[in-house]
Design a protein that fits this description.
mainly alpha, 10 helices, globular
């Protein structure tokens, strides 16, 4: 997914440059106001990401419990007390309550703040090249950007479910595949889907499901559709390199044995997020 050309940003900068030339104080003021508005917008996108991250936590937990993420109110998993709105404020409630339920004092999983904060940060990073001098948040806001947000959410949910339970849910990945197919007409993306899914399908057949699972095949095809070709090749390479390094590290620390498995989907999702951010 390529970002749109930043014509509006360049136009505004040209006007500010002309204003600075003719009236330096006035032009300098416009420069400060414009870039302040950009960073404020970026902050609001971070807050939006926090809220969406909170909903992603609901999806993650209820998928594992076999419940609908759209029905029923949130409750403490220990005492089953229905949570009030002020106990559901993303990140803030966890900090204020010191990571405990207000009613039974049970510990709240660190998954909640990590997913909320991580989603907020990734949304902000995906919105613009933060470390670039020339950027415009609003000019990059488009249908393509909305789709990238959605794909990012799918990757975050899959990362967490595979990390915690070694599960990649079809109900999460399939909608992403269907949506990507509807908007992807490029043969390079279709080829990448065949390469991504085919690479894991081959391993599945050769190992009879011992090396990878069927969820890895779907996830590989999904990554191909959103990354395209030849980016999928880089994704596969980085997935196995990062997975091998982590496996070696864990074995050297005594945390894993040779026969133990690692959640490969986590590395696939992390690499895909990285490639989405740097494209």
């Amino acid at each position: 997914m390529l970002p749109p050309q930043d014509f509006s940003h360049q136009f505004v900068l040209s006007l500010i440059e002309i204003s600075i030339t003719k009236n330096p104080p006035h032009g300098g003021f416009l420069f400060v106001v414009y870039y302040t508005s950009q960073y404020m917008t970026l902050f609001l996108i971070f807050i939006l990401g926090l809220c969406i991250g909170s909903f992603l936590n609901v999806i993650i937990i209820r998928l594992h419990d076999g419940a609908s993420p759209l029905k029923g109110r949130s409750m403490c998993p220990q005492c089953k007390h229905t949570l009030a709105w002020y106990e559901l404020i993303p990140l803030a409630s966890f900090i204020i309550q010191q990571g405990r339920c207000r009613h039974c004092q049970a510990h709240i999983s660190w998954q909640y703040p990590f997913v909320e904060f991580g989603t907020g940060v990734l949304f902000a990073m995906l919105s613009s090249p933060i470390f670039s001098y020339q950027f415009s948040v609003l000019s990059n806001f488009s249908i393509t950007q909305l789709l990238n947000y959605l794909f990012l959410c799918i990757l975050i949910v899959t990362f967490v479910t595979d990390l915690r339970w070694n599960l990649i849910y079809d109900a999460v990945v399939w909608p992403g595949i269907v949506l990507a197919l509807l908007i992807t007409l490029s043969p390079y993306h279709l080829l990448a889907a065949l390469v991504g899914g085919g690479a894991f399908a081959l391993q599945y057949i050769l190992s009879r499901g011992a090396w990878v699972g069927s969820g890895d095949i779907l996830l590989g095809a999904f990554l191909g559709l959103i990354l395209g070709f030849p980016a999928i090749l880089a994704a596969l390479f980085l997935t196995y390199i990062s997975g091998s390094l982590v496996a070696l590290l864990l074995m050297s620390l005594g945390g894993k044995k040779t026969k133990d498995t690692l959640p490969l989907g986590c590395f696939m999702c992390a690499v895909a997020i990285l490639l989405l951010l740097i494209r």
